[in-house]
Write a structure and sequence with these properties.
Blueprint (H helix, E strand, L loop, with lengths): L19 H18 L6 H9 E7 L5 E7 L13 H17 L29 E11 L4 E6 L1
Antiparallel strand pairs: 1-2, 2-3, 3-4
């Protein structure tokens, strides 16, 4: 069976005219629908988009910044009952890519990105069932790389 492709949210009419929070929500919904259209049924990222990630705020200026609320569900946990390190990396991937969506324009950063380098310092464990705020700020965007600052 052929997999349905669909369009990335930036390619949808009116995306760039939406307020920042609505643009973020449209981006997340579009990415989730594209994943499902490609046959992706599970994984940290799809679970985040579907069940655990809420947009608290978003601004475009002075630099694009989004604050998310993440509920640490059992699907994001490890056998110790705390958030899995891979889930943390996925949260950074999803939140960073979403923040990058606020900088997008036609023919520039349309299709997404992957993490090239990720440096995480764990200061303590977050228990399954707890919620955390994740703030991501776009620090710079070039032709091939974007740089972000995260607070988790």
């Amino acid at each position: 069976m052929a997999k349905k492709e669909g369009k990335f949210p930036l390619e949808l009419e009116g995306f760039k005219d939406l307020p920042a929070v609505e643009r973020v929500k449209a981006w997340l919904k579009g990415v989730m629908e594209m994943g499902r259209g490609r046959g992706v049924e599970k994984g940290f990222d799809l679970h985040l988009l579907h069940s655990a990630l809420l947009v608290s705020s978003a601004t475009l200026t002075p630099s694009p910044t989004i604050t998310f609320h993440v509920t640490v569900t059992p699907e994001l946990g490890n056998f110790n009952g705390t958030i899995h390190g891979g889930a943390v990396a996925t949260i950074f991937d999803v939140c960073g890519l979403t923040a990058l969506s606020l900088t997008r324009r036609p023919e520039f950063w349309i299709r997404g990105a992957v993490s090239r380098s990720l440096n995480v310092v764990f200061l303590g464990a977050v228990q399954v069932g707890e919620g955390v705020e994740v703030r991501v700020e776009v620090m710079g965007v070039g032709r091939r790389l974007g740089r972000f600052d995260f607070l988790f």
